[in-house]
Design goal:
This protein is mostly beta strands. The protein is built from 4 helices and 34 strands. Strands 2-11-9-5-6 form a 5-stranded mixed β-sheet, with no helix packed on it.
Length: 437
Amino acid sequence: MKFKLFILVFFIVFIIPFFSFFSLSKYQFENSFLVARLELDNTPPEIKLISFTNTNTQYPNHANKTHTITARIQIIEDYISEINLDSNHIKVKVNDKFVSVNFKKISCVSDNKKIYDIVFTNVPSDGNLSITFLEGTAIDTSMQNNQEKTFYSNILIDNTAPVATFSEELIQDNYSKGTITVNEGIQSVNGWDISSNNMILSRNFTNPIEYALPIKDFAQNSSSVLVSVKQASNIILKYGAYDAGTNNTYIVNSGGIAGEQVINSDSICKTEALFIRTSGNINSSSLKGRAFLYTYYGEGSSGNCRFSELRYNYGYNPLSSWRTVNAENWAYLSGEKFTEFGGTGVNYAAKSGSNPIPEEIAKQYLYGLSGIALSLDDYSEYSIVYQIYVKGVGWLPAKYNGQETMYSFDKPFSAIRINIVPNSQRQYLIDYWNAGN
């Protein structure tokens, strides 16, 4: 019994598999099945900086809160699940301190390459600009977050205007050297030499002058410094206005106000006559002028100045022509020769020619110089700038180089100021005077 059982077991264990292995069936079948494909992603999304750009195109490494800055980035990840480009995930820093900015636009530049522009403005504070992308800005399909990353822009944020001081030093030939010292680097200024560190400006002046010089740093912040030259006398310009009320002529130097006492009083006196002279390093006949004198007598009339005995006419003196300073119509004041425009005695009752002014009109002092124009022979280096003050109206816009200034024919001016100025500084002086300084 045991023997038979052994034979049976041997047959099942050894013989049947043998025949199964060497099957003689006509057909055989092989099948393979894809149950799942697993790809392991151990690399989180990466944010790469492409560029920083700045609307301060002249000085792209400097900006203030008015400029718009664009950070262009690329997200490196094939299987992206979520991109969070918003103010909760993007932080702007100045000197490694987070600051609040105005995000103007966040836009996709290339969807395939995942390139984006982050555009912002109104960056406060002063210092080096950087941008930080927090963890979770980009998430891939494996739920991996980007690592926090900071990119430095090489842009200096500067919201503080430059501060400058002016000093004057009298040098040879009666020139004055003006020096402006600034607390930071600034842009070059027309007509001024600038140091290698962009913090010192200098130039030489021939005559007294005062004006506000605008300066601007590399981030386009603006301020001004008062240029006040008092000692220069390489070119000397003197002039005075005859005050019909006090019978005095007040002589001033370049830029001074002739007739200032009239402005600062309640007097209705006007300037009847103007006296001008030049000296120093200037052609003695380079300055010319023409003035309109309004008289009570009316058009075509004339009279004699009681002070100089010079003839003055209604209208331009002489009509439609220019008088050369230092060469025509001499009048002496304090022992110096001046060229006279207009004439004193216009307002005196019963003493003003064959047709005397009535007393009630004479007391009003309504008549005198109404308009004036001044010119130079040569404008290659210098300009002549002038401005008149009309009582009840104020300072009229400054004129220069032969332009006429007049409020109206029958409204004579009370005061005047004149200056010879380098062409590069002319507009600064005009702006300063027109601002009421």
